[in-house]
Amino acid sequence: MYKEFGIDEKIEKLAIEAEEEIKEEFKKVENNCLRNSIKVLEAFQEYKVSDIHFNSTTGYGYGDIGRDTIEKIFAKVLKAEDSLVRNQFISGTHALTVCLFGLLRPGDTMLSISGKPYDTLDSVIGLEENPSSLKAFGIKYDEVNLQEEDFNIPAILEKLKNNKIKLIEIQRSRGYATRRSLTIDKIEKVIKAIKEVDKEVIVMVDNCYGEFVDEKEPIELGADIMVGSLIKNLGGGLAPNGAYIAGRKDLVELCSERLTSPGQGKEVGPSLGINKNFLQGLYMAPSVVASSLKTAIFTAKMMEKLGYKAVPTWSERRSDIVQTIEFGNEKDLVKYVQGIQAGSAIDSNSVPMPWDMPGYTDKVIMAAGAFTMGSSIELSCDAPIRKPYIAFQQGGLTYEYGKLGVLKAIQNMVKSS
Ligand SMILES: *Cc1c(COP(=O)(O)O)cnc(C)c1O
């Protein structure tokens, strides 16, 4: 079967071996998928979803029962009091921006406790000078670095004792950092320690790439509010754009008044035909996340067999869908990423090349043969061209397509060496 797809016998044999060895890990992923599917199905049933919820509004979007029901369902699935699930969010970054501007006021301090946040937040926070940043509005920023890939609890508590902190940010996923993602156990422990010292402080989790990877979500771990993108996990590959914020009702309300306008909040925002995609995307999400995880586990096992370093390793507990592979040289990295593109259904004939992307110091190469532009719940892979030549791979709408993409990438790399 693989031969037809241009995969030679040696790699096929390796793949068969790898799949045999990762069986137990796949079982864990499947159990977790079932648990998350139950959460989703129960929420659909509780709110009696029917085809009236697929209807749409235009203009101001008053009385959009589909939209309002979707927000109840997201809240229920994420164990939150309320949520804001909107196509008016342009991206995960936009939802994080709305959340920070919605909750922070001039003179307040935000504290990041997982080191420097995701790159796109530099201009939002004001780490990169910008006349529209939080800093420009008089909001202060402080951070505590991780220590040995875990929270530095003594340093965090010290900060809380010395200053009034309004909001603490935790980034669960690694983003483009080389650290591991933060597991739910670590997040639960740090939030408990924080709340013992300061019950008032708002704990916000950037949950991008984390949803449905494990059995609990940030609100269940004690967080007050969480944020994520719908062209990642919870969109299930079917949401064409959008993002969500979920958590305490009063906080979600504040965010909604920043997204729309004070006094209008959640009451407005036309769904413009998106409701069915959001509902069906959430319905598919547990299985799509499971496929992404299986693709990542398979990748880690294959690359380890071929002598490359993969983080997380194939058997490690995961907290996001990101897999990194360390190639050690530029040639293998580029060939692999080009192979991921060649193994896609969309734009398989394009050959990605390293280029000088605005805002980045090193050249970057990106493979994204996706139905939705920029979607990274679909198999995608990108890398800055710098030592030690690490690629960040994520997604896979089905395990079979994910596996085929990875095999194509490996074949492309091996063929040229
Ligand atoms: C994807 C992501 C974001 C938001 O990115 P967008 O591309 O703006 O949706 C923020 N934080 C993390 C950790 C992410 O992975």
Order of helices and strands: HHHEHEHEHEHEEEHHEEHEEEH
Lateral strand order in the biggest sheet? 1-7-6-5-4-2-3
State the end-to-end CA separation: 24 Å
Reported by name, the CATH topology of the largest domain is Aspartate Aminotransferase, domain 2
Bound molecules: pyridoxal-5'-phosphate
The first-level CATH class name of the largest domain: Alpha Beta
Mean of all residue-level pLDDT scores: 96
General shape: globular
Helix tally equals 11
Task: Provide the CATH superfamily of the largest domain.
Answer: Type I PLP-dependent aspartate aminotransferase-like (Major domain)
Largest sheet: 7 strands, mixed
Number of strands: 12
Q: Which structural class do the helices and strands define?
A: alpha/beta
CA radius of gyration:
21 Å
- Helical content stands at 25-40%
What portion of residues belong to β-strands? 5-15%
3D structure, described in words:
This protein is an alpha/beta fold and about 425 residues long. The chain has two domains: about 170 residues, Aspartate Aminotransferase, domain 1; about 220 residues, Aspartate Aminotransferase, domain 2 (3-Layer(aba) Sandwich). Helix content is about 40%, strand content about 15%. The chain has eleven helices and twelve strands. The strands form two sheets. It has a seven-stranded mixed sheet, sandwiched between helices. The protein has a five-stranded antiparallel sheet with strand order 8-9-12-11-10, with helices on one face. α5 links the parallel β2 and β3. α3 runs parallel beside α9. The longest helix has about 30 residues. It is globular, with a radius of gyration of 21 Å. It starts with 8 loop residues before the first helix and ends with a helix. Bound molecules: pyridoxal-5'-phosphate. The site of pyridoxal-5'-phosphate has 12 residues, from α4. Pyridoxal-5'-phosphate binds next to α4.
